[in-house]
Amino acid sequence: MSLNSDTSSFVRNTVDGQLAAAGVTRKPNTTGTWEASGLGPTSLERVADVLRTLAGVPGTVQGADPGVSVDHVWLYMDRD
Question: How would you class 79 by CB atoms within 10 Å of its CB: exposed for 0-12, middle for 13-18, buried for 19 or more?
Fold first, then answer.
């Protein structure tokens, strides 16, 4: 994902926490890349919560910079 004007990183950190709760962790040494293997229905619901959060920024993240916006989100799911 890419965020514009998230200078305080409130949105990124919120999303990071939501993804971690879903079992999706940030890939080391990359920017804005998270990965997981074998997500179940509960985890997928939490990923959907992340998308809802991103769809409503800045209003959905307390303390977010007023001008923050989502540039893009890439979501790839593959069934093993």
Answer: exposed
pLDDT tens for the chain, 80 residues: list them: 899 999 999 999 999 999 999 989 888 877 778 888 888 888 889 999 999 999 999 999 999 999 999 999 988 877 66
Q: Which residue has the tokens 């959907």?
A: 48
- The 3-state DSSP class for residue 55 equals helix
